[in-house]
Amino acid sequence: MPKIMNLFVTAIGTDSGKTLVSAVLTEALQCPYWKPIQCGNPMDAETVAALVSIKLVLPYKSTYLKSPISPHAAAEIEGVRLHVCDFKKPDTTNALVIEGAGGILVPLNDQETMSDLAIHISDKVILVVNHYLGSINHTLLTLEVLQARGLNLVGIVFNGEPNEASERAILLRTSAPVLFRIEQQTEVSPLVVRSLAKRVPVELLLS
């Protein structure tokens, strides 16, 4: 059985591949998955459940907001109050993969951001990076925030078409290792997730 460890999956922005990476980690660790805050459809928890081979048990507080926008704005529209203290740190007997919403500084309310939630409910952070014009800057800014907030970055996952120059520029400026890479996928399926799960350094994540 995996060591108890809450792994928080964040990214340099929206649509960077957090849900796919979360599914891969869930499959590799054979552990539950949790999405504390969901904005809009499709429901990421349902996506992950359809991609992994284990039955997910989710006895943790989650907030679903219909609007596909930033949590603080969606909550205001729907009359919901988001506060980090309302989310209890999971009491697990297993590892747990936690997927954030958007990037690490996405606001939850006027004072708190996703980084505060990560501090409150997780032990280690995994950063998903995809390549586009400006992604180096977004990645380095995210790395600085994680360090400044004292979040324990266990590694980086590069998602999409490889870019050696961009990856080198990023890795020169962090001691975090590359956990694994995901090449551009034309179709995401349980078979693809199981294949990618074999690349995950489980011992490193749980050490």
What characteristics describe this protein?
single chain, 207 residues, alpha/beta, Rossmann fold, 6-stranded parallel beta sheet, two-stranded parallel ribbon, 8 helices, globular
Description:
The protein has one domain: P-loop containing nucleotide triphosphate hydrolases (Rossmann fold, 3-Layer(aba) Sandwich). Helix 2 links the parallel strand 3 and strand 4 (63-65). The two termini are 13 Å apart. The strands form 2 sheets. The protein has a 6-stranded parallel sheet, with helices on both faces. The protein has 207 residues and is an alpha/beta fold. It has helices at 18-29, 44-51, 71-78, 114-121, 135-148, 164-171, 190-197, 202-205, and strands at residues 5-11, 33-34, 37-39, 63-65, 95-103, 124-130, 153-159, 178-182. It contains 8 helices and 8 strands; from the N terminus they run E-H-E-E-H-E-H-E-H-E-H-E-H-E-H-H.
Structural class comes to alpha/beta
CATH topology: Rossmann fold
Number of helices: 8
How far apart the termini lie comes to 13 Å
SSE order: EHEEHEHEHEHEHEHH
Helical residue percent band: 25-40%
Number of domains: 1
Runs in which pLDDT lies below 50 for 5 or more consecutive residues are none
Please identify the top-level CATH class: Alpha Beta
The main β sheet shows up as: 6 strands, parallel
The counted number of beta strands is: 8
CATH superfamily: P-loop containing nucleotide triphosphate hydrolases
Strand numbers in spatial order across the main sheet: 2-5-1-6-7-8
Please identify, by name, the CATH architecture. 3-Layer(aba) Sandwich
Give the integer mean of the pLDDT values: 92
